[in-house]
Structures
1.
Amino acid sequence: MFRTAELGQKVSKAEYNDRVPDLRIQLLEAQQDLRQANFPVIVLFTGVDGAGKGETANLLQEWMDPRWIVTRAYARKSEEEAERPGLWRYWRDLPRNGQVGIFLSAWYSRPYIERVYGKLNREQFEEALDRILTFERMLANDGALILKFWMHLGKKAQEKRFKKLEKDPLHAWRVTKKDWKHWKMYDEFIDAAEHTIMKTSIGRAPWTIVEGADERYRGLKVGETLLNGIRRRLAEADIEEAVNDAEGAYVLGTANGDGATPRTTVLQALDTTKSLSKDEYSKSLEKYQAKLNLLHRKARSEKVSVILVFEGWDAAGKGGAIRRITPALDARDYQVIPIAAPTDEEKAHHYLWRFWRHLSRAGRVTIFDRSWYGRVLVERIEGFASETEWRRAYAEINSFERALVEHGIVLIKYWIHISKEEQEARFRAREETSYKAWKLTEEDWRNRERWDEYDAAVNDMVGQTSTRLAPWVLVEGDDKRYARVKVLKTLCDRLEERLK
Amino acid sequence: MFRTAELGQKVSKAEYNDRVPDLRIQLLEAQQDLRQANFPVIVLFTGVDGAGKGETANLLQEWMDPRWIVTRAYARKSEEEAERPGLWRYWRDLPRNGQVGIFLSAWYSRPYIERVYGKLNREQFEEALDRILTFERMLANDGALILKFWMHLGKKAQEKRFKKLEKDPLHAWRVTKKDWKHWKMYDEFIDAAEHTIMKTSIGRAPWTIVEGADERYRGLKVGETLLNGIRRRLAEADIEEAVNDAEGAYVLGTANGDGATPRTTVLQALDTTKSLSKDEYSKSLEKYQAKLNLLHRKARSEKVSVILVFEGWDAAGKGGAIRRITPALDARDYQVIPIAAPTDEEKAHHYLWRFWRHLSRAGRVTIFDRSWYGRVLVERIEGFASETEWRRAYAEINSFERALVEHGIVLIKYWIHISKEEQEARFRAREETSYKAWKLTEEDWRNRERWDEYDAAVNDMVGQTSTRLAPWVLVEGDDKRYARVKVLKTLCDRLEERLK
């Protein structure tokens, strides 16, 4: 696989000086066009030590306008990073739309090295690569241009390079004992690299293998690949826009369609008559709050995090249910995140980014009042997301939640259900209670008119995202007391199970 | 001081139920008006344990619209937090304009407890309170409404409260051995509290002492104080706006004035003929890059951070100087932060917030290509900041930089100076070099016309912010080689001194 990158490719100084000025202008122009585009560019450098990963990243930074480009390199994980899922540190650093983010080694580094050192067996290595693939696909599907460069040196060339660096007082520090150790393991590294590249070179995130021995050759090669990549992606974006305009009309058509969902939905199958007496309620509330308190203090000390997602009809009682949970917790240990309209920084990233940034440290409880499911509910029904986007979201959400659960987080997703009649009664009551009237807006009445569409969307959502690792909890909510206790009890049960 | 808060204030259930609905409506209305305002509300709860800090915070959260209110409580500092200046964790969490942030104990907690435990002597305690005062003044001057509540209980009342909590299975965990230990130290705590409150109760950030024994009384008292605070501040804002409109015209008048600055400015006094031969340059460059590399690896291992600020005329060579530093560093250890226009999240915070968020972990180098000094340069001259705002900025910047330096960070501020003639020559050269032409905009020519105003502004800036802890380094930049070496050498010298 790497044979073509061990040919001794070279570019003469004259040719270099001839080609660089033009390349720089074109890169700068591409960058200007990119700024208006609604996708980010992700450039990843990895490869053989000494093949110029860092130097080439610096070169791009020098050639291009530094205001719209950012370079990230990663050292050992910090305590805060280790407390979140493995990819979290990269999620946070993703460039916003219109910008270029350069990542040194980044997400490939760990599985690759751990495989060579035998810390991951074959199967675990495949799993790690699968997670990366899912991650890159998700970004690519959202529009990101991902260009991955494998900077290569043959075994002899690497030896030569290390020896040369060691002689140079400014660069000698770059060659460590570990580098020489790795050099002796060259073949094992190359095996793992081949496998990595084969498995993760996909259409929207291809690998380019670059021979790294000659500084000028590798610089031009990377610069030109990047330029072509951006140009091609910008041209695609123009086409996509045209298609989306056409598709938008189509999606609205179906979403507004004749509501042909005669089958019973999961919500319609719920028994809304379930209830609790005032007395049972007081007793249960006290019991489960006390229990939750004990359980959470244990979870806190064992660094087990909890993420609760609350979705449900307007006026279903999400806030009330949340306020029955929080008194059992220490204020330092939980956060309630009400999801409002995204800020401009949030809009300029993948739609999951604004949730990633709220992930808490280990041992904490994070409560989302509405969540990432907005993508397949309101955004679907109001047409804010195209059909392609919301359909894709199911898989993206599943993979995001899988990362949370596999990291050891207890994730519970509640849909609080009320009947259409109960909702009307509550709307009316809100109108009449002075300090609750603000909760009721025109939009609530409008959403109500689309009840059947939401009903169908919830049905799809539960079908697509109620996974073994992260099942939905459907809560019968016509009786507030019953609903609150069910929410608390479920939380206690799940925590208890996790802490066993 | 606390005698009036040990009177056994009570509100009957009937009165409470009568007053609460109206208070809630008014709070919600105030919150709606607030959303349009260009200032945040900061509510701080501290006080005697068991006096209802957390409960009252929860109550506000319940009464108000949770989308525009956020509560923060703090546990032990994380490794990442400990690596930044003491107030960093709060800086990051400040609410944006139009929102309410509730802080439990927060910045008062540490100095207060450390004083009682004798870890801070009198003088150190005063210093800590001074830092808090400066911080709160800065926020208040920027418009923030700060309301601080001391939740109080007499010694007997506290004992009674603890005993009652211990009997309740849901709340028994809230009373710890430490609480009883502190109860025995009640008088020491009260002494420190009195001093804290006396010293830090200022007009724009007053303390309200609330008797905490009766749940209903304290809830109403806090709610009403908050409501009045927001209402009063909103009324002030209307007046300010009118005054600012008038003042704006005045400021523009003076900024555009007759340029009556006949005195020699610091920049005019620089010797722009300083230069280095090509040969001297190569040798010095190599020498200092190698030296920097060694020094920084030492700094990295000793967790000493470096912050470099680059300011200077357009085309002065900031980028070139930065690119002579970075090759000596490991890509994982530095970040270049080019300062572009603020995002909307950034605009909705104090103007220093967008720099706070970039502070690196311990042992790293952060290079700002332009910086917070924009406030007293471009924002002053273009009238983006009012005269009051940019004049105030000197003190704010000094205090910000002091926090950095006192935390052990090496801070170097470079102004790279070129003569007006040299600038013109460089502009012309850029026009002629195809891949540099993008660097030159209409704005550069416009800024050039305001050379004298900038000259005067830089003179003021250096005068006001060249402190003993954080002096300005003025770099003679007509000769690029000389400038680059001076930048590198200064960095090496300062690092060497710090690591001694």
2.
Amino acid sequence: MIVGQIKMRLFIFVSLFWASTFAIRPGPVIQASKGAVWPKPQQQEISETYYLIRPHSFTFKSPDHIGCPSFLDDALTRYWTIIATTISSKLEEKLWKLDDNFLGYLEILTIKLFGECPNENILPELYDNENYTLTIDSDGAVLTSETIWGVLRGLETFSQLIYSEQDTLMINATKINDFPRFPHRGFLLDTSRHFEPVPIILQMLDAMAYNKFNVFHWHITDDHSFPYKSRTYPELSDKGAYHPVRGVYEQSDVKKVIEYARVRGIRVIPEFDTPGHTRSWGVAHPELLTSCFTDNVVNGQLGPMDPTKDITYNFINNLFTEIVNVFPDSYFHIGGDEVEFDCWKSNPDVNNFMKQNNFLSYEQLESYFIQHVVNILDTLSSKYLVWEEVFVNGVELPNSTVVHIWKDNGLSTLNNVIKAGKYGLYSSCWYLSVLHSGSDWDAFYKCEPALLLHTEEEKKLLLGGEACMWGEYVNEYSVIPRVWPRASAIAERLWSDESVNDISDAQIRLEEHACRMNKRGIAAQPPNGPGVCF
Amino acid sequence: MIVGQIKMRLFIFVSLFWASTFAIRPGPVIQASKGAVWPKPQQQEISETYYLIRPHSFTFKSPDHIGCPSFLDDALTRYWTIIATTISSKLEEKLWKLDDNFLGYLEILTIKLFGECPNENILPELYDNENYTLTIDSDGAVLTSETIWGVLRGLETFSQLIYSEQDTLMINATKINDFPRFPHRGFLLDTSRHFEPVPIILQMLDAMAYNKFNVFHWHITDDHSFPYKSRTYPELSDKGAYHPVRGVYEQSDVKKVIEYARVRGIRVIPEFDTPGHTRSWGVAHPELLTSCFTDNVVNGQLGPMDPTKDITYNFINNLFTEIVNVFPDSYFHIGGDEVEFDCWKSNPDVNNFMKQNNFLSYEQLESYFIQHVVNILDTLSSKYLVWEEVFVNGVELPNSTVVHIWKDNGLSTLNNVIKAGKYGLYSSCWYLSVLHSGSDWDAFYKCEPALLLHTEEEKKLLLGGEACMWGEYVNEYSVIPRVWPRASAIAERLWSDESVNDISDAQIRLEEHACRMNKRGIAAQPPNGPGVCF
């Protein structure tokens, strides 16, 4: 029954031919695929045989998971709704030319969740097993996984296999064995440069699930605003947010985001960047920041955090104790990037402190600061991620540290990080704030983070990567079309096999996937030029 | 009472100082102005004295226009709603520290429309008088204009002068004498590469009015789709639109767009681009397009329109007769850009035809085609715009023709156009599809189209310009944040005096204007980096 990839190959060939002759062809530049999965599964065989689906006589059955977390039930409801409402179909039965490939009406997807029934409050974690298999053949449809996370990924895949033909839902017989290439597939959102309302964050989480991202890196504070409403230090956002009420994330908002993410198998890692990128902290607590001097006279300006004072570390300790409590993930991103030394250099007290401690460089002073923060997190039993400067400047870090690489020569820095036995996370080529005219997802897609890694041991230390949406030039009105489907290119790089790097094949599937997101309410922009999504 | 621009100058100085020290400052990078007008009026004096406004006891009075077009009443309602609902205010009266500058509560704006009471069905036209004066002083507020169009522009200005301070509406005493620099201030929207639903077009028209644009150039058809539902040839969109129902503009849609534009003082100029950019015409009418050959054998592909056949011109005549009837503006954009000659070169019949007519170049053949189209429009008493190639290729054009310049060396082409006594319209530097990372409106802003024009006669032949939003990479979800506020930069270049070109002054006002558009429901993206709009 499974005829291998013959039909798919034929399909791709026809599409490429179509595209290459478009100089005389009206219509979309890239003809979208139908029922192709994004990101591409590790192994998929696809057949010409097919089922039809009538949403209202279709159900999920999951005999093994009775009593398992109710969020699996919620996921089934969510995906049933997606199938029934976002793929074009008409209720009235159409006359359909049934051919030899017709297998009947698919009425059940059986979900087999092996292994222990998970705890109701189970959290997604690094290294979760997300593997699943999905078989649709003449015997029906079965999704199997050892974990609830694999079931979620498989449901996403199942929903993407269904497509519309003459207003009828179809699904081809197929056999999928799928698993992620990398365990950390992240999306960073900066909510400091512009405030992003909670509904926008929830939409991002939906779209992340549609792309099998599994980490929401919440770059929640920065120089420009401090939108996190702390229980310990509410004055930080009272004074440092763009608005003390409309520009803050209340504790209930944060809970909502974390729970919305959790049930989609998405971890939420908060970042409270220090000692730079902290100007907004200084509105309520100027004493935390270094006083800058001009010609040995204090000039009223404030620089990075003051690394010489105990109050700085006490404050961080109190705040981070809260953060570790509010954000249940075992990782915390403590920043450490782009510390400007000018203010430290200008300050006589800082320089005296350095002499007393025999620090020969400001990098050493920065390391001293980070070492204190790292010690605080060790005490709190939290693991951490740091931006690459922390590693490059020589801070002593335990091997559990994840070094987040973002600068231009990222591949060689990554190599150094991994050679030093640390974990690496890659973002250098995945800054969504970098724009080019026209179609600009291909550079994200072609970027291969493991290029310089050769052994299996080395590759295991590369945890994955993150698409970064810095907030300077996006607001709530523009951030979703700016991110999607450009971040989808990164999602496929992080999930699919390294060999999946054919732009021509990808653009056909991305054309469908962007339209699929549109139909699910995600305001994705067009990926490939002229086209249509009805 | 009027203290000149002292306060405004002080304000700008403070803002620049603020911006230059932002390395230590949290909050928005650019602090928005309050009550600054975009595009900047030709002459404005502003005072520190001010009125407060309570929306529910504020009215427009226009004694002179009783019996004048009801759309003036509609405009007053529209602007009353904008003032009452989109500028932050609280109904309860606040304790307000009234100082010596307080002039009282402004309860009436008197509108004096001089001149004839216009016809109910009056259409905006090229060279309409849009001048107005607006005086707000201790005697109250008066808007005067000789035309209904000037009243519309003045109402927009009035609505922008009002700002919110401690949740109370304020307006400073001011004296404005305003008029546009150019009579043609256009925005081109391409609805062929992606279909843009009517509600999106109406939002664009709203935003255009907020920026004093006065021409909607509707690039309605192109290679990829033909969304205009013709009465004469409905098969063009039945077969050539992306979808025969969901991808078309019905006659009723077109009427709605034209009327929505008209009452905002915006002309609608349709473009039906020929002889290139017509692949979508060929789905229903392949006989209109040139058959392409390989080695003297027809290869099944179709090129530009076939300039050798009478049926081509008969068809265009019939269709354009309809278009001139449907679109009431006296101008019609007939395209003429980017005609590829390869297919013509390959076709033996075309080459024979050229021999018979002693054509020595394909440019001559193209000119022959355009000459026929131009003759058709002359018969229909319609004036026309053409893309620059038509002029460059030497088509004989009457002096009423407007040559639309879009290529890179636009300033010198414009110079040639004007030296030849034709009208010029400029777009070379105003392609909104050209993207750069970060803030990218300044290049649009700095572009000065009249750079090479010296005499008053020359300058008069430059009608203005158009911001062009080509549709390849924008869809209904992304087009509005892509256009706004980037097109606002072009709006100011086209309306304000040539001397208004200070980026530092502009960015403060654009920060306010983008937020103003957000509050009015336009999904504008941020212009200047980190910021906030609540």
3.
Amino acid sequence: MAGTYPNLGEHVVVQDIERADAAVIKGLAECGVATVHEAQGRFGLLSEKMRPIYSGARIAGSAVTVSIPPCDNWMIHVAVEQCKPGDILVVAPTSPSNAGYFGDLLATSLKGRGVAGLIIDGGVRDIRDLTEMQFPVWASSIFAQGTVKETLGSVNVPVVCAGGPVNPGDVIVADDDGVCVVPLADAVSVLEKAHAREAKEAQTRARLTSGELGLDIYNMRERLKEKGLKYI
Amino acid sequence: MAGTYPNLGEHVVVQDIERADAAVIKGLAECGVATVHEAQGRFGLLSEKMRPIYSGARIAGSAVTVSIPPCDNWMIHVAVEQCKPGDILVVAPTSPSNAGYFGDLLATSLKGRGVAGLIIDGGVRDIRDLTEMQFPVWASSIFAQGTVKETLGSVNVPVVCAGGPVNPGDVIVADDDGVCVVPLADAVSVLEKAHAREAKEAQTRARLTSGELGLDIYNMRERLKEKGLKYI
Amino acid sequence: MAGTYPNLGEHVVVQDIERADAAVIKGLAECGVATVHEAQGRFGLLSEKMRPIYSGARIAGSAVTVSIPPCDNWMIHVAVEQCKPGDILVVAPTSPSNAGYFGDLLATSLKGRGVAGLIIDGGVRDIRDLTEMQFPVWASSIFAQGTVKETLGSVNVPVVCAGGPVNPGDVIVADDDGVCVVPLADAVSVLEKAHAREAKEAQTRARLTSGELGLDIYNMRERLKEKGLKYI
Amino acid sequence: MAGTYPNLGEHVVVQDIERADAAVIKGLAECGVATVHEAQGRFGLLSEKMRPIYSGARIAGSAVTVSIPPCDNWMIHVAVEQCKPGDILVVAPTSPSNAGYFGDLLATSLKGRGVAGLIIDGGVRDIRDLTEMQFPVWASSIFAQGTVKETLGSVNVPVVCAGGPVNPGDVIVADDDGVCVVPLADAVSVLEKAHAREAKEAQTRARLTSGELGLDIYNMRERLKEKGLKYI
Amino acid sequence: MAGTYPNLGEHVVVQDIERADAAVIKGLAECGVATVHEAQGRFGLLSEKMRPIYSGARIAGSAVTVSIPPCDNWMIHVAVEQCKPGDILVVAPTSPSNAGYFGDLLATSLKGRGVAGLIIDGGVRDIRDLTEMQFPVWASSIFAQGTVKETLGSVNVPVVCAGGPVNPGDVIVADDDGVCVVPLADAVSVLEKAHAREAKEAQTRARLTSGELGLDIYNMRERLKEKGLKYI
Amino acid sequence: MAGTYPNLGEHVVVQDIERADAAVIKGLAECGVATVHEAQGRFGLLSEKMRPIYSGARIAGSAVTVSIPPCDNWMIHVAVEQCKPGDILVVAPTSPSNAGYFGDLLATSLKGRGVAGLIIDGGVRDIRDLTEMQFPVWASSIFAQGTVKETLGSVNVPVVCAGGPVNPGDVIVADDDGVCVVPLADAVSVLEKAHAREAKEAQTRARLTSGELGLDIYNMRERLKEKGLKYI
């Protein structure tokens, strides 16, 4: 079942997923969302509606995905058991909803298992508790409205979360800029490209700090003239 | 007039409203929005567009309600006089508007009277001053655009604010999760239910912290199986 | 070309713009957005969608304007060279877009030139870096999605940014309440009016603090009665 | 139970509600939303997000209200039985949701009972079928996403629908301008006021058609001059 | 006063504005929004939130501009007198508001004077009547909520309407695609460019109809290959 | 390359895609979006922001997918060549944008090749022409703003369009309710399930028409009682 989107009424929990190397994940976290997103060819950025509940967190981890019916958080309880230390839970309702699927009790449970954070295209509550316990969440909504536990979904199947495709085991990178998804198979090469990008940016930053202009560093003047820009 | 929505062109100020017991109000504040909302059967939550202007505040108080024409803040000045220490002003424009109805001068006046905070389905300004003086506001908008003082409204009549019905004297609970309205008549029983809920959650939290799974604590495995969830 | 909106395919960089007096600019910054906006007759406020990336900054400066194609940040690089110490860059895409036009490298370059901040009706990224270096930005979006460098725009021409007309050299005032534009020719008189307003508000604040009601300070009771307000 | 909002977990169906006189309802339908809304002092207009699924319908009827959990349409089936000819079903989810609660089968059932139309602060589907059968719906969303039938709500209790308070038996007026709620107790007097307004508007319309200006008909010139308007 | 934005509390009615030639206006109407917008270098398009209240209308006319306080339609009555046959009224509230500023009585008055239509960054009501009398309106909202007549604005001053700068006498072009503003001084040259564009598009359309591909007509294949597009 | 999302800077055109059987596609079109979506387990519905530019069209066809940079429509020209009679073009910008990527010239070209319609998570223009030529489009925006032709994308690779995953060759079903995606491999079985659903609904419709209640047809009374619903 892994590898295809859930449909036709089947509800599954895939228990054994592949994860990226811990060092690679750590490296991607340090690079941050903007760099990683550029490094992988501007692919995998979730919608800008995904905002952190508090600022300053920067994490990466392996996606444990949850396809969940709208206004029903039952499957999140199921997903907790599938999480390993360092994982990030990715929750995607099958229909848009701002209900508060997640609060401090679930966070306590996830934190106890070493889960690094939560990405949810829906609502979250108990913001004050989550901030105090420093459990980072990127959500499309803050809303206290509760959910029910009536309908099944699936765990560790491909999902679309906030406009981005996520497969179980993909590396999630999240910080104040938002959330980016790195496909598992690309994690190593993306990290390399991100490091190369960082090295190059460090050089550029030094030159900009010394007063050089981007116009000159990037050799833009000629092309601007060709395109017809007039200085007056 | 109290007890019915204002209409047909009558504009009134109801000067004598009933309030909940101060200890009950204090208890509800300590429980917070998410718990109180669950405790009263998921009733009374205002729209998620109501956000605090700074994080960390958690208050409760008796609602002094203001039905106000759009882009006109005259009646807020009228309402100030009706406020008693610990009250919360609840301002509901009769037509949606993001105008900046409220700023630091009105806050100075309210704070001087011991008012606990403001709930407004509209705009607020002087954010920096309000934050410095620690006068908490939950608003649907931050906008410096001023308002006029031309048209009457009513004070202490039933209003709908951000989607929720509010009667004068209802207990307002507000924190980082949003705003919840507890009907005056239900305040005592809701507090009891909220305390019961907190006690139960404390137990659950302890079990979750010790590593138990919600799946087991809530006895979910059987029902999941019956519904057809497959582990693979 | 200065003085007219860019159109008909001409792309220009106006290199020599007039700026307001530094002391006037400083004075407007101290008054803040809400006061300045009221002082100039409620003109020039940008849309409430313009939010600061971190709270607490309050700046003013001369506008260096950039008319930019959607999803293309080439002209920002061109504009950097036109900025002088104390200026504020005002970036207006010609079509709405939330792309991340601006990040830490451009901020490094602008900060090195003494630029006070950025106003952009579009997206910004590298929020954590910008916050650490305390380079204030008011933007309509936070989004890591990159842009291209393919199409020309213009620098220092009149633009409409977030609903407000901005001419090069206009004074931009920005704080937690949003962004306000003071036309260059009005800067001195607006500052005078703002100071007068502040003086009057200080008196009012003192009276409110001492417990007087706005109803009495503003002599509202008579007019409320005439309009038909009933106390019950 | 009727007369209070549903909460604390009680779920009821109130079977016997009072309705306005059929002639009054018919009269209000003929006046239309804008006139009725003005006639009752600009009270009772639902949010502008409530749009008709096809244009041209103008109806009025007695509200049969449904308080419904988000993403769950079970209680609509319960409500059908409570509807009488000429009624209008008013569906208010307790939490915002755009799910498709209603389609052609429910419309068939309602139409068979003589129900005049549906007002729903949520989604509707089978638009083509509903249009063909000319069953008018005002909804906040068009969305094919289905709902579940798991959780109770209440029928014929007070609800807030799209920002407006609705009591069972209130008269709903709906046309291309939106939806307006007339409290049952006010229906007769509002109709009188609406008729008076229509008569006056007919006179004004005749004068405007003959070329007179509103400036003169409404005697505005003097007051404009007093306020300081300058013609140049 | 004409030529500057209204501010500092002055309120004026400019009675004598320049208008474009009737034949030029008619020509621009026939070209339509998309063509005119391209022909003038992609300048002057209003926000996409401006939608026609019924489809199929395509008009052009000289702008009579109205700067209006939020939720107050007094100045529209003043503006009617300034309109000449063929004009288009352009109404821009100084603060965003969806109130229903305009209905069938004002339309009757404008239609009687030969006004071609209305552009309003706000709400409109009496949709059914306006459709029946075929008075076209492009508005950001349909909402029955009424407005007051208390505060002055200005007529025939520069405004920003729905994100676009409009000067009195500018040519407004509006159809199902939206609304475009042609600066008065550019009207003749834009019409020429629009006609040239139409001629060229007619040729392209003929070739496309005959089965030729845009890839070949526009000679794209070479450049695509250079950029690295791979066919597999 | 087919089968993975485009990233890492590779841009490809996959020329040979598998398509569903024409009879199956025709059958799915006749069932319509709501039925098909239910039949495949409520999977594959695109966001409700996808609205038809005119009402009444109901189509199905094989997806030719286009991954396109924001505000750049170059790849649509490339995609035209890959379309076969009966196909539906599915255009997904890699970053959200409301630009007008598509107008009557591209429609002329597509219609000439027998393409059934367009699905685009972006803007479309020339609405009047498209309506006249009856070329159906489901778009998230109507906007005349043009795009550039500077940056590559890919054709016939997996995309996420308006929140839904689409693979080349998937069957797209679109009508007034929105847009649904049927995975190619499931098309036959989904059609069967849709037909079964239609047969069952026909029976239910007959019973409802005869006056039976859903409460009885679906045997709901018992379960409602068990859950605690009280009739009063």
